[in-house]
Amino acid sequence: IRTAASHVWPFPLHVHNHCVWKPARHPAIISDSHLHTPMYFFLTNLSLVDICFTSSTIPKMLLNIQTKNKVITHEGCITQIYFYALFGVLDDFLLSAMAHDRYVAICHPLHYTVIMNPRLCGLLVLLSCTMSALHSLLQSLMILRLSFCTDLAIPHFFCELNQILLGACSDTFLNDTMMYSATVLLGGGPLAGILYSYTKTVSSIRGISSAQGKYKVFSSCASHLSVVSLFYFTILGVSLSSAVPSSSQLSATALVLYTVVTPMLNLFIYSLRNKDIKRALDNYTQVTEFLLLGLSKDLTLQPLIFRLFLSMYLITACGNLLIVLATISDSHLHTPMYFFLANLSLVDICFTSTTIPKMLLNIQTHSKAITYEGCITQMYFFLLFGVLDDFILSAMAYDRYVAICHPLHYTVIMNPRLCGLVVLLSWILSALYSLLQSLMVLRLSFCTDLEIPHFFCELNQMVHLACSDTFLNDVVTYFATGILAGCPLAGILYSYSKIVSSICRISSAQGKYKAFLTCVSHLTVVSLFYCTILGVYLNSATTHSSHSSATASVMYTVVTPMLNPFIYSLRNKDIKRALKRFIWVESMKGPFILRLRK
């Protein structure tokens, strides 16, 4: 990549191998409703910015050390400058906003909730982000106008703005003027606000009569004061070290304190000196297991339930597995319809396996416990295979639509590439949806009541157990359900409306019957799938009984996957023929091998 002076510009970064650690922020504030206040709102944003601020420099440094390569591209260097300046200035603005929050809380406590309302807090963060983005964009554009000489070595572990300007061979007067002016305005402005807030805060604290009252009020802003002092003292140290002639090594070392150590220490300062944060962290980590109450509390019914569900699970697994094996073994079934059917059978096995084995184990061991991690994992795979079932049924409806409405173009439209892409896209969308829902549950905190009135970790029951705010979870659930369930259902209805229209145009009754027969199995499975889901929804909406809802859930989690092999094998001559051939071949292998051995 060439600059205006036609010089190649990948910058070799002289990386200094300092011992660094990137802070991992815990989602304690999000999960605890008691921390949904202006102070902790700003703290959450500060923590997020600290992660991004450190991530703009350290990963590249670690990659360079690992690969023993000091080069950074022109675009990479400009991008790093942009984000480094963005999050650095944003850190400063947020600290100033937090100082104003402490000033209002201590000097105007009766008007605190009125002044520091959610709208003002949101506007302050938005304004901070906007000003930081404009500043970093301006600085990046100012560097783009420069040309660089042959010495392209940056004596630093990242693309630091001042070092880039020193490496330019064109006039940098305008850049220097802009940099110093922006530093005074965007650095001095927030600092002046912080100093003003704390002078007023100290004045109010001095007016409190009791020593205990003074200590209590001061402790509410001690953490923020420590972070502010650390932030500005490290900046001052960097400025002093860069002012010393020929001190690139010293300046790079000092910058480690500002870019890495300060964000790392913020976590400890706020958690160790703040009882609310420590309590939230304790509450967040205290949940280790849930209790699955199952279908019935009656101990005398447990053996019957165990035998019944074990039988249904074995029938489901064996029946669907036979369809998969028959489809693979018979070349006559290597068509789009049976490709989707094999995938549906495989998904049904997995769908049932996410819930029933754990339920059977709990009955057998007389234990209702499931670990927190196990519950999240079960919920993830249950949602994954449930949504995947829906997508594959929709793909099968489209396959029937093409076969009946466009029979001459069937092999061209439903080619192996399209079928593979449809299944792949279904897997990706299902995995992303289940991952999103699992992450949304992870942000919740749970109270002491950890009993799930179900035989598996059902999403709705998990959300109901949470003692933190679940509004966002409900919005995501309803929105995603509307899209991921409504769109496939709309596709199925559209396909069958076109199919019915095409069948009605067939003149002979025999032709109509033959065309309808090709999709009757799929139509039966679709009807069973959606009717059982609708039944569960209506049951939970009308009775409000968790036990009744759990019983109804058995229909679509166990009964529907169990019946699918019977529906497709009993009403499909191709499947019956393939199953007979497969069983006959397998039964003949044993005697044949024995005769060879004799």
Automatic annotation (TrEMBL):
It is found in: Membrane. Its main location: membrane. Keywords: G-protein coupled receptor, Membrane, Olfaction, Receptor, Sensory transduction, Transducer, Transmembrane, Transmembrane helix. The keyword Cell membrane does not apply. CDD domains: 7tmA_OR7-like. It is a multi-pass membrane protein. GO terms for cellular component: membrane. This is Olfactory receptor 7A17. The lineage of its organism: Eukaryota, Metazoa, Chordata, Craniata, Vertebrata.
